[in-house]
Design goal:
64 residues, alpha+beta, two-stranded parallel ribbon, 25% helix, GTPase activity
Length: 64
């Protein structure tokens, strides 16, 4: 169940601080094209999906 969705700098703080009701935050990166993250992710889509392969397979290009 998703309680809240945070991005960027907020992820750093919510992962470190324990919420008395929910426990620690679980951080998931769902952007396969991001080069670097400013926070650690518990699950990273980049471990599973290679965006370059998806671009080739579906003929995706930002200039088309």
């Amino acid at each position: 169940m998703v309680q809240n969705i945070y991005s960027g700098p907020l992820c750093k703080n919510h992962r470190k601080e324990k919420n008395p009701y929910l426990g620690y935050a679980y951080v998931v990166n769902l952007d396969p094209a991001v080069m670097t993250l400013s926070f650690g992710a518990n699950i990273d889509i980049r471990d599973t999906v290679r965006y370059t392969d998806v671009k080739k397979e579906y003929g995706l290009d930002p200039n088309k």
